[in-house]
């Protein structure tokens, strides 16, 4: 037991406090779209919103309470209860929320028993050392992805070792019905191709539970052996074609992508991957130019380059104009700086990369938890600073829960990295004005540093190496009705696509209520539900905002707020703004740590999450809709695979 609730018990909010919330209507930001998103993605066993809030808050204060009891630290039950009540109320009102991982896993028996990996948004793993331990980064990716962690990786292992022909043994490898069993099968296969060892004659999948069986601890439903069988088949075919050849960037990326496809097909909560390669590696830069391979598995990762200040951006930018890839990560900036307004301190020099949406600087095998705050949902700065305390404390609490991986734990215990994020930033600017809003950011950053000093002393842990971030926010912002991260509203009227398995009751409910349903182009047995959305209180939509202004807002948040990074997918009109990319990259290479671009048209992604429609189309679609009716569905383990306007969505 990682968090020993059997010995110490759990923290509980009183029923008389909770009862009124059970009967209050929830102010879902986008109505039915928000409710369906919550029920599909975050509700466990049919929870209502107040019950999810209760589980999260009770889990958070349980971790804090047990930490204090095990280490004889000061604990004031009365003060803790008052703080927990306030945190609950502010979460219920969408002033702050945990990341999607926290909404799903915080306060569950699985988390107490199996550790904190499932609470973390993102991670990074380097392939630098594959010559000495070939399978390690790939196994790490599989295990973390199966627990819901979106992870980046690099191609630094390219050229460092060679694929060998394995010996085919007479033995059968019986795969255990567990994450560890799947990981061991992957390790056995990859090591055989690396050291020329024994490859099982047969793989026995008989112990793996049938598709549709409930996963009682983690939640969701079993996929059956199909995805694992396909992963093994695809990897064998890939590595057979490389026998006698050096490992290159294509092999590394394809191996990671096949692993990612397996996790998606398994119906297990996951996030997309980020592949980071050299700007001089044309093989890497052209990976997304093979439509067949993209359709098979290369869609899994966003591909970005390690950019360098002073480099020539013309060649990579020409590729970016085509489909938005590569993106750009200035690792030297990320290593040297916290906020870009502050002097460089080089505290993050060992950092190796970033997460899939490029908002976190990360060391090899490091994880990080990000947490949302909604500044536009507050009366004034003082109100926001009070909320920020609970958001900060949630993220810091997650660092107290070890994972299953000792190497990851060692990095996380040293760095205690967190990411207090803001979302609905454009909404806050529209309400406050840009100058006043950035003043809020500056004051709020100072508040986080004060909180980190205070709580780190209390909990007897190091201060966090970095503390603030801006994430793209994905579907969590959908619950609250917030514009995602630094992005503007998509359009006055648009479609928002949500992916749901075909056999989920939500799909039937939506179909019977008149919503348009598409078959998913990327995943079998998956429906795509189209929700018509009308933007309210909008000053400008993103198509009306010049590309440079979008990048400037990201730079402003990197200056005033984020000491990690700012996730920004800046969409642009290829014909009018594509030629500006080299100039913009040059102008902002000392003000940003990372950025992704996406052409607003001809980006090559089928069924994007957002699609602009006319007012007439919106009114026609809405006029045929009826209220949802039917049984309240239980949870489903599923994730969309797009960032806001880009190729991945973490929440």
**Helix/sheet category:** alpha/beta
Number of strands: 21
Outline, from the CA principal axes?
Answer: globular
Give the C-alpha Rg. Answer: 23 Å
Average pLDDT, all residues: 92
Number of helices: 25
Main β-sheet, in a few words? 11 strands, mixed
What is the terminal separation in angstroms? 27 Å
Low-confidence stretches: 635-651
Helical proportion, percent range: 40-55%
- How much of the sequence lies in strands comes to 5-15%
Describe this structure in words.
Helix 3 (32-41) crosses helix 20 (474-480), helix 10 (226-240) runs antiparallel to helix 11 (249-265) and helix 18 crosses helix 19 (434-459). Strands 1, 2, 3, 8, 9, 10, 13, 14, 15, 19 and 20 form an 11-stranded mixed sheet that branches. Strands 17-18-16-21 form a 4-stranded antiparallel sheet. Strands 4-6 form a two-stranded parallel sheet. The model is unreliable at 635-651 (pLDDT under 50). The chain is globular and about 65 Å long. Strand 2 (122-125), helix 8 and strand 3 (150-154) form a beta-alpha-beta unit. It has 651 residues and is an alpha/beta fold. It has 25 helices and 21 strands.
């Amino acid at each position: 037991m990682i968090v020993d609730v059997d010995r110490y018990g759990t923290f509980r909010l009183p029923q008389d406090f909770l009862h009124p919330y059970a009967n209050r209507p929830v102010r879902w930001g986008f109505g039915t779209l928000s409710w369906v998103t919550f029920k599909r993605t975050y509700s466990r066993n049919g929870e209502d919103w107040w019950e999810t809030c209760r589980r999260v808050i009770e889990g958070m204060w349980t971790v804090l309470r047990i930490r204090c009891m095990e280490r004889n630290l000061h604990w004031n039950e009365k003060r803790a209860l008052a703080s927990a009540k306030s945190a609950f109320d502010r979460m219920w009102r969408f002033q702050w929320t945990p990341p999607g991982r926290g909404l799903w896993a915080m306060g569950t028996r699985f988390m107490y028993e199996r550790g904190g990996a499932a609470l973390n948004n993102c991670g990074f793993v380097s392939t630098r050392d594959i010559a000495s331990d070939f399978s390690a980064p790939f196994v790490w990716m599989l295990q973390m992805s199966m627990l819901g962690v979106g992870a980046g990786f690099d191609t630094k292992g390219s050229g460092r070792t060679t694929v060998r022909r394995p010996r085919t043994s007479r033995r059968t490898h019986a795969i255990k019905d567990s994450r560890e069993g799947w990981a061991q099968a992957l390790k056995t296969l990859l090591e055989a191709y690396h050291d020329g060892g024994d490859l099982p004659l047969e793989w026995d999948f008989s112990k793996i539970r049938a598709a549709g069986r409930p996963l009682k601890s983690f939640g969701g439903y079993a996929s059956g052996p199909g995805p694992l069988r396909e992963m093994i088949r695809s990897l064998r075919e890939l590595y057979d074609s490389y026998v006698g050849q050096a490992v290159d960037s294509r092999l590394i990326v394809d191996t990671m992508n096949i692993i990612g496809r397996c996790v998606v097909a398994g119906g297990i909560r996951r996030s997309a991957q980020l592949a980071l390669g050299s700007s001089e590696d044309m093989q890497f830069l052209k990976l997304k130019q093979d439509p067949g391979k993209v359709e098979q598995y290369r869609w899994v990762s966003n591909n970005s380059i390690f950019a360098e200040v002073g480099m020539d951006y013309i060649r990579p930018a020409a590729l970016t104009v085509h489909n938005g890839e590569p993106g750009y990560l200035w690792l030297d900036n990320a290593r040297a700086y916290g906020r870009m307004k502050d002097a460089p301190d080089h505290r993050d020099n060992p950092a190796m990369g970033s997460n899939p949406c490029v908002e976190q600087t990360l060391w090899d095998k490091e994880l990080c938890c990000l947490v949302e705050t909604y500044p536009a949902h507050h009366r004034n700065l003082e109100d926001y600073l009070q909320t920020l305390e609970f958001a900060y404390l949630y993220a810091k609490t997650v660092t107290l829960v070890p994972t299953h991986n000792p190497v990851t734990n060692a990095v996380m215990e040293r760095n205690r990295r967190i990411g207090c994020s803001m979302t609905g930033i454009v909404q806050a600017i529209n309400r406050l004005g840009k100058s006043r809003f950035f003043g809020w950011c500056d004051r709020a950053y100072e508040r986080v540093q004060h909180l980190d000093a205070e709580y780190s002393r209390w909990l007897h842990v190091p201060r966090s190496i970095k503390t603030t971030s801006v994430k793209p926010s994905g579907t969590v912002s959908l619950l609250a009705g917030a514009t995602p991260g630094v992005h503007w509203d998509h359009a006055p009227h648009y479609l928002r696509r949500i992916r749901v398995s075909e056999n989920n009751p939500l799909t039937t409910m939506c179909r019977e209520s008149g919503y348009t349903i598409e078959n998913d182009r990327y995943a079998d047995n998956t429906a795509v539900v189209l929700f018509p959305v009308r933007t309210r209180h909008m000053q400008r939509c993103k198509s009306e905002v010049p590309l440079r202004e979008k990048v400037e807002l990201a730079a402003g948040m990197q200056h005033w707020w984020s000491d990690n990074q700012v996730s920004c997918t800046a969409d642009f009109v290829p014909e009018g703004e594509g030629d500006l990319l080299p100039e913009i990259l040059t102008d902002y290479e000392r003000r940003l740590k990372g950025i992704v671009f996406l052409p607003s048209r001809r980006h090559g992604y089928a069924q994007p999450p957002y699609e602009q429609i006319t007012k007439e189309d919106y009114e026609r679609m809405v006029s045929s809709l009826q209220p949802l009716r039917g049984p309240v569905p239980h949870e489903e383990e599923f994730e969309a695979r797009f960032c806001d306007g880009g190729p991945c969505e973490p929440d």
